[in-house]
Amino acid sequence: MPARLADVLSELGFETPTPIQQATLPDAFAGRDLLGRGRTGSGKTLAFLLPLVARLTGSKRTRPGAPRAMILAPTRELVAQIDTALQPLAKAARLTSRTVFGGVGQGAQVAAIRRGADIIVACPGRLEDLIDQGHCSLADIEISVLDEADHMADLGFLPAVRRLLARTPAGGQRMLFSATLDRAVDALVKQFLVKPQVHQADSAQSPVSTMSHHVLQIARENRLPILVDLTSAPGRTVVFTRTKHGARGLARQLNRNGVPAVELHGNLNQNARTRNLDAFHSGQASTLVATDIAARGIHVDDVALVIHADPPVDPKAYLHRSGRTARAGNSGSVITLATPDQAQEVRQLTKAAGISPTTTKISSTQHAVLSELAPGPRVRVEVTPPAPQPESTGRPARGGGRSGSPRAGAPRTADAGGGGGRGRRRGSGRGRGNSAANGAPVANGASAATATADRESKSGNRTGSGSRSRRRSPSSSNRSSSPTHSAAAFSAKRR
Fold first, then answer.
1. What pLDDT does 300 receive?
2. What fold characterizes domain 3-200?
3. What is the CATH number of domain 211-383?
4. What is the model's pTM?
5. How far is CA 225 from CA 218, 219, 230, 364, 376, in A?
6. What's the pLDDT tens digit per position in 130-157?
7. What is the location of CATH 3.40.50.300 in the chain?
């Protein structure tokens, strides 16, 4: 390893390699193809970034539009996380990188590639679009990395991955990292990796000694009070739901009950997703309510508690959701809430995942086990109702093409910071500029969403009484009224 990279690791506090790093680094530095299997949080990112940067250092100059290394990941959040870890290493080696994903305009991505970005960290769909438009070539790729390959298979991305790998030179190094090795991933390995070295450490099925698993059997009417109690304890909490609607609704309910919470799911545009993740990272929001989109690629230090508010659909999802806590040797607890009709499903799920949880029947928030699982005083704050959350409208994004999702055509999203202009939804009132509709908090706890709802309620009353009402666009009747749950809207007045 070059001395400058070792210095960066020392400055970042990395002194001892993790098992997956110890296993893969020698072959990776030697330029061999390899398959690394390890669960989330095991240190896979540095296991491929260190050799990638080291092998690009001092080699040929990158041509405009033709990067020399390609890292593929299934989600925008994971792409951003990888690039964040890459930046200090690339800076020390005087290399440049660029993230490539949908949900945002492609102009900045194209400009960076044309300037000669050495490394691209990308979602498959948007990268294919840029190649098809002639903005990027993979003819000079020396190193290709696939991260979370099994998740790409789950999301249906492997056909796009195959097409991208087929565009890279046959003699290049290819590294594939995956938590599990199923048939789809195995077929990819056989097609593109040449005599790969296979290393396994901290597999997804191996137990984590610092992670405790619990099942709380509850009545459905006690679900919200128990969630409020657990999430109002000190520390960061990630709560998982099965649906986007469920995540949005639960985040709203937690905020109403004094728990600063943000949501993360596929209906949010990129600005909203980034803003909400930043709030959770900074501690302005103590709870993240997410769908399985966050089960991969979201790394936040010191998550003490993971709660399955809705049981996951399969054992793999359970293990990856749970991997948000007890990372890098830290301890953490995983709680699954099970109503009577879900009890058998949860028993089968945990058995298939190789987990033997502690099961407790709870009838109220006064049960002692809640304080044991989430110790500390319960603190709630007054949360100012935030502005409406910008969501996807289902139209293709400007700049065209796929955004890393399985379907072609990235959803066009409303810009959270916009005020008027093209793309502004009709029927949302006359407010413009720096109003709460654009994401800014409103004084005295009122929000643009509240004001709009009041106007529409009055309009509906007039219509019902026979009075003439203003004509409304069909788009306004379908407009989402979900809150942003942004940390900027939280006021820290303790009750």
1. 72
2. Rossmann fold (3.40.50)
3. 3.40.50.300
4. 0.62
5. 11, 11, 9, 8, 17
6. 999 999 999 999 999 999 888 888 778 8
7. 3-200, 211-383
